[in-house]
Amino acid sequence: KKADSRFTDTDNGSYYAAYINWASENNIISGTGGGLFKPDQEITRQEMAAILYRFAEFLNTLPSGLEKTQLNYPDASEIPSWAAEAAGYCQQTGIITGRSGGEFVPQGTATRAEVAAILQRFIESSVK
Questions:
Q1: Are 120 and 126 in contact (CB under 8 A)?
Q2: Mean pLDDT (the chain, rounded)
Q3: What phi and psi, each to the nearest 5 degrees, are found at residue 30?
Q4: CB of 59 within 8 A of CB of 125?
Q5: 103 or 69, which is more confident?
Q6: What distance in Å separates the CA atoms of residue 85 and residue 79, rounded to the nearest whole number?
Q7: Cα–Cα dist 4/107, whole Å
């Protein structure tokens, strides 16, 4: 039995509905506000960092001392407060090393190559 979608814009019959619902139920994703998920929207780097951070929290693999992490990305002032701890996690673990110049580029979208590298580094940092 499929659960009802947690988001008004997510088709419960879609191939991704069960995954979105599971991630939402486990506080890994929260949507974009107003009961929306926007499944066809591109993801920003800050959103991706937040998802990875929450997934690491779900896996109980967050490193200690995370709250003391000072963001060293040259564009750290552009990272919104809701994504700052996630960016710190990505910096401390080396999951997101930054683009040329070391910038985090929080509002930028991730390329497929970046996602592949980030996922590999995430898995390596999470599997001990």
A1: no
A2: 92
A3: -130, 0
A4: no
A5: 103
A6: 10
A7: 31
> What pLDDT, on the 0 to 100 scale, is given for residue 128?
66
70-102 pLDDT tens trace: 999 999 999 999 999 999 999 999 999 889 889
Q: String of b and e for 37-61 (b: at least 16 CB within 10 Å)? A: beeeeeebbbbbbbbbbbbbbeeee
- pLDDT value of position 86: 96
**Beta carbons of 39 and 20 less than 8 angstroms apart:** yes
Q: Burial letters for 86-113: b for 16+ Cβ neighbours within 10 Å, e otherwise?
A: bbbbbbbbebbebeeeeebbbeeebeee
* Structure token pair of residue 2: 């499929």
